[in-house]
Amino acid sequence: MVAKEGREKRNFGLINEKGEEIGTYTGAQPRDAALKVANRGITNIVLREKGTKKLHYFIGKRELVPVPKNAPAWIQNAAKANKGKIYKANVEKVGTAQLKYVKLDRNDKSLFKVPKKEGKKK
After folding, report:
1. Are 85 and 65 in contact (CB under 8 A)?
2. What is the per-residue pLDDT across 70-100, written as a single tens digit (0 to 9) for each?
3. The pTM is what?
4. What is the DSSP string of the chain?
5. How far apart are the C-alpha atoms of 53 and 90, rounded to whole Å?
């Protein structure tokens, strides 16, 4: 698949804390897939880039916000069920890691927990 900008879309597997893959999301960047996950209400997000051993860690949230005035009609219609509001996802990347083994169950389970966010440096 090729994205509109001409960038290739990649697949990312959502990993739970037990090290099991529980879903697949697509995006040109890991953040694109993480936004889709966060919009489903999941806050601690661990994504494995398919075809690699790379893990991406995100902290996500979603909140109800008023519909923008310039939103398409289908969004405005969908918002009527939520009193004129829609869910907006937001994610923050916490870090990355490399798996030691391709098979998820052979890796250390601590890799599948989102690390604590470090304080911002000035």
Report:
1. yes
2. 999 999 998 988 888 999 999 999 999 999 9
3. 0.84
4. -B-TTSPBPEEEEEE-TTS-EEEEEEESSHHHHHHHHHTTT--EEEEEETTSSEEEEEEEEEEEEEPPTT--HHHHHHHGGGTTEEEEEEEEEEEEEE-SSSSGGGS-GGGGSPPPPPPPP-
5. 25
